[in-house]
Amino acid sequence: MTSLEIKNLHSGYNDTIIIREINLAVEQGEILCILGRNGMGKSTLLKTVMGVIRAKEGEINYRGISIKGLQPFEIARRGIGYAPQEAAIFANLTVRENLAIGFPQKTFTREAKKALGYFPHLKERLSQKAGTLSGGETKMLIACRALMGNHDLILFDEVTEGVQPSIVSDIQEALYNVNKKNNTTIIIVEQNVTFAKEIAQNYVIMSQGSIVEKGSGKEWDMDRIEKYIVI
Amino acid sequence: MSITLLLILDIISTVSILFIIATGLAIIFGLMGVVNLAHGHFVMLGAYTALLIVQNNLNPWLALIAAPLILAVVGLFVERFLIRMLYGKIMESILATWGLGIVITQIVELIFGKDFKQVPIPIDTTLLNIDYSFYRLLIIAFAIVLLIVLALIERRTNLGITVRAVIANHTLASTLGVNIGRVYQMTFIAGSALAGLAGAIIAPLVTVYSNMGIGYVVNAFLAILVGGAGSLFGLVGGSTLLAGSDSIVSFWADKVWGSIFLILVAMVAMKIKQLRD
Amino acid sequence: MFASFRKKFSLNWFMLIIVLLALAPLFTTGYYDMLLGKAIILAIFAISLDLAWGYGGILSLGHSIFFGLGAYAFSIAALNGNTGAAFVVGIVLALLLPTLLAAAAGWFLFYEKLDPFYVGVITLSLTLIAEKTVLLFPKLTGGQNGLYNIPLPFTLSGKSLYFVILVIFIVVLYFVNKLSSSDFGKLLVATRDNELRAQFLGYNTAFVHTLIFIISGFLAGFAGLLYAPYVGFVGPGLFTMAFATQVIIWVAIGGRGRIIGAVIGALIINMLTPVFNEISPYLWQIFLGGTFVAVVVFRPDGLTSLWGKPKDSAAISKISITQKPQLSSDDSNKNSKLFVTDLNVSFGALSVLENLCLTINPSELLCIVGPNGAGKSTLVNAITGLVKTSKGDILLEGERLTRFRPYNIVNKGAARTFQSANVFGTLTVADNLFLASNKGLITSFWRRSREIKLSEPAKRLLNSIGLSEKLHEEAGNLSHGEQKSLELCMVLALEPRVLLLDEPTAGLALQERKIIGDILINLVRSEELAMVVIEHDIEFVKSIADRIAVLHNGDIIVDGNIEEVTSNSLVKEIYLGVEAV
Asked: B63-72, pLDDT tens digit by residue?
């Protein structure tokens, strides 16, 4: 079954089009990685799927039903989790409160227990203000929150950015397990190709707002990838 | 009873009244980025509700339930047909709610006339040996209870977490499944209900007339400016500073000088804030 | 052609109103003559609010305080003397006191960015103070009863007095039209619509706000001065919020940001009010209030905006080139242009830049690259004063930049552009360039420049991207690429010594990138400018950079020429990511 299907998507801010003619289909249970340099439209694509930015043209279907034009909370309630990239925590709330947003008390206890299992380190910080976390811990919090709530599709935007190797491996294991156990579809936007290669089956490369390369299976064309990513 | 104690009680009750009025306003401003200048008019409507109840020989305490209920309904309609178009637009919200206030004032004058009304105090006794209006003491108690309840909601409940999250970053909260539109709607209704309640509470202490709300709303906004809209305790601080200086000066000089001094203190406090960062 | 037609169109409205007002007394008598004259005086009051609010963006909720102060000052002086000297004192005080009050209020109200909430609450509370103060001194002010029988300095009455008022009105109209279409008028609109850009062109926007508020307060006081002897009575009602509200309603319904809107709104509503008050004052006020709310929500520019935008006019027709000042000494060139040491910036507990050191030399183009969130934009923001630094030093040719306001820093010679095009969208290309070329000086209140003096590179860029053909187009209607180019022209017109560009090619097509790249290289070579460019597009960086600095987690980890950076294994690791262990 197709989880997410995007057809001829155009999106951007105000008058500026940032992504153009995006066509993409992600199967249920697939892990897809979107690669590319900064400013090429990767985050804009995820934000458009999530309804944070309004699509200008094209279709976005989730499990066969259009989610284009819905508000972010409606999309979230249909089962799409999202770990945004920048400033994606509530600095003045504690870690526990950050995780609790949007959940009734009972669901929260259950879901938090499950997700925190992957991040034992975060468990010790539950009553600390999220603003006092280190960069790596912040990313853990964002990842942990996206894993809560039984989502069928989770979008991760640069979840390993600026994170030390040991935490990268925690995150990797969490994503891997959720994918295996619940057949959750995962889309990651990454600059860390090494990490992406470990976990994703398929990849696409974005450049100047469009998808320029697609690859599948474990056969990753590293030369082509480097051309689009390294200086 | 000593003058000092009297003064202190006066200060605390004045601060309490300002705090009760300002909370509803601060919640709406902090959460929605909407300046509701008609908040004072909502307070006035609450006071008129108390007046109507007394005029119809009903139990005066009923006003404390009826006023917030009526104002909640008013808030529901105002949010639905006006405020919804003004989220995050400060200047437009100032103007539109200001216009709304004019309309409300004129309707009230059309129905009730322009003259000043009095609402009798529901409980005109003193407690124990304290020679001070028991009703004012009740107001102080109520403000403290309100503060504690709000602080508990803010810190201890899921509702509080949601509200603080929406204040900090509403887009992010939305991607986590929070229905922002619903939060805003409920906030405005709650804020309006608080205004109504405040109106019913102060009605017996003041003269009730169509423009009575303006002075209160201005002082409440000044308290928010000084204390910051985002924090409950900042608001307590702002209310204390302003209402405190008002009552002290009113006590030594005169009420007019008190209100002048209040505004000057607010302006100086704001200037210090500006220059410090 | 079109512009001049529109100008005539707009002028004709003024002519029409004046002719109607001149003919009106033919059909009125006694009481209605007085109403007409009063409506004209209130129209002047409305104009004063429109200058502050419509042009300056300062929503004053208590403008009646200036009007009331003017009216009372004259009345008190005139009643206490009724001699020539008393009248003079009255007139001087009626003009001086509101002006001084506006200046004092301006000092409190305006600081950095205009905050409509703060301005609204404080101006509103000033009115409340004034209303109460009047009652504090009943001997002077007449208290609740007000002051009666205020004498005129000359003996006129009825229709002849009306015509005196009309003539004064025409003079006022002439002056405010001159002001609103002067260079200062442009600066006002620019500051109102994009305060940040104005600050980064070197304008002290808080001072601009204070100036227009003073002018507005003066004019409101002048209206009050006319009102008191004309009507013969002043009461505390002049200070009330209700009165302050009325004038806002006239301007809002008529149309803010244009003189004609304030005039029409004030005249029509004030002439209709006595008529409808006879039916029901309450219903009339409810109707006005409702209309006001509807206008605010659905037609924020008022009813006169239905006629379309009032387009002036004597537009800028000539662009000349400024002589480049000779550099005073050679040794200033040998030193580094920009010198950053030990820079720290943090937002709360989050540390964005940590002990960052960076040197930029004259005639050097430095590109800063790095992953998102590395702190690139924060670095530019820190240098240009947009964010506060917590530690460290920034020196521009030896002069310290830290702890200065953005407009100071621009005037010291460090100019910048923003990630997304940041121009004055409501002004023409020519006006955008004019304000930039004026370099942060307060513009003329009277004159309207027909000529822009641009620096040579700005002019060259303007020609090469074809913007010189679009001088009279509104900047907001340009394509994104053209807007970015215009912004670049504008900062070049500032003749900076250091130029900081935040993603100059973001959102641009390949062809446009090439043009911009060539221009940047050219600039650095020919102007001895030091340039810092933040860029994501690595191909672009390689084609322009003399030196590349890689920023990662708030510090510069590699700094060198293109080969050094591209061959660095650390850089590759950052971009490809580390392996999980």
From this structure: 999 999 999 9
Q: DSSP readout, chain B?
A: --HHHHHHHHHHHHHHHHHHHHHHHHHHHHHH----TTHHHHHHHHHHHHHHHHHTT--GGGHHHHHHHHHHHHHHHHHHHTGGG-TT-HHHHHHHHHHHHHHHHHHHHHHH-SS-EE---S---B-TT--SBHHHHHHHHHHHHHHHHHHHHHHHSHHHHHHHHHHH-HHHHHHTT--HHHHHHHHHHHHHHHHHHHHHHHGGGSEE-TTTHHHHHHHHHHHHHHH-TT-HHHHHHHHHHHHHHHHHHHHHS-HHHHHHHHHHHHHHHHHHHHHH-
Give the tens place of pLDDT for each residue, B200-253: 999 998 899 988 888 888 889 899 988 877 778 888 888 888 888 888 888 888
**Per-domain residue ranges of chain A:** 2-229
B177 vs A93: CB contact, 8 Å cut-off?
Answer: no
Interval B128-186: pLDDT, tens: 666 778 888 889 999 999 999 999 988 888 888 898 898 888 889 999 999 999 999 99
Q: Pick C579's closest partner by Cβ from A39, A194, A226.
A: A194
The yes-or-no verdict on residue B57 having pLDDT over 50 is yes
Of the candidates C269, C50, C307, which has an alpha carbon nearest to the alpha carbon of residue C176? C50
Claim to verify: residue C68 and residue C114 sit in the same structural domain: yes
* Interface contacts A/C by beta carbons within 8 Å: 85
Cβ within 8 Å, pair A86-C372? yes
Name the pTM for this structure: 0.87
> A231 and C371 in contact by Cβ < 8 A?
no
pLDDT at C331: 47
> How many domains does chain C divide into?
3
Q: Is residue C129 part of a domain?
A: yes
Tokens of A80: 């799409």
Residues A72, B169: C-beta atoms closer than 8 Å: no
pLDDT for position C308: 66
Q: Can you identify the CATH homologous superfamily of domain A2-229? A: P-loop containing nucleotide triphosphate hydrolases (3.40.50.300)
Indicate which of C537, C568, C575, C581 best probes the interface with A, i.e. most A CBs within 10 Å of its own CB.
C575
Give yes or no: residues C398 and C425 share one domain: no
pLDDT at B60: 86
Report the pLDDT value the prediction gives residue C10, as an integer from 0 to 100: 55
In chain C, what residues touch B91 (CB-CB under 8 Å)?
Answer: 59, 116, 120
Within chain C, which residues score under 50 in pLDDT? 1-5, 328-333, 579-581
Chain C residues touching chain A at CB-CB below 8 Å: 348-350, 369, 371-373, 420, 480, 503, 506-507, 536-538, 541-542, 553, 565-566, 571-572, 575-581
Does residue B35 belong to the interface with chain C, where contact is any CB pair within 8 Å?
yes
CA distance A186 to chain C (A): 19
Residues of chain A with pLDDT under 70: 15, 87, 218, 230-231
Same domain, C117 and C177: yes
Structural domain of residue C264, as residue ranges?
2-307
B140: containing domain = 3-212
CB contact under 8 A, C132 and B259: yes
* pLDDT at position B82: 92
- The per-residue pLDDT for A72 is 92
How many domains does one find in chain B? 1
> Is A79 part of the contact surface with chain B (CB cutoff 8 Å)?
no
Claim to verify: residue C261 and residue C366 sit in the same structural domain: no
With CB atoms and an 8 Å threshold, state whether C577 touches A192. Answer: yes
The answer to whether B230 faces chain C, any CB pair under 8 Å, is no
Distances (CA, A) of C15 to C20, C46, C162, C303: 8, 19, 18, 19
- Provide mean pLDDT across the span B36-43: 94
Check B175 against A76: CB less than 8 A apart.
Answer: yes
How confident is residue B103, by pLDDT bands cut at 50, 70 and 90?
very high
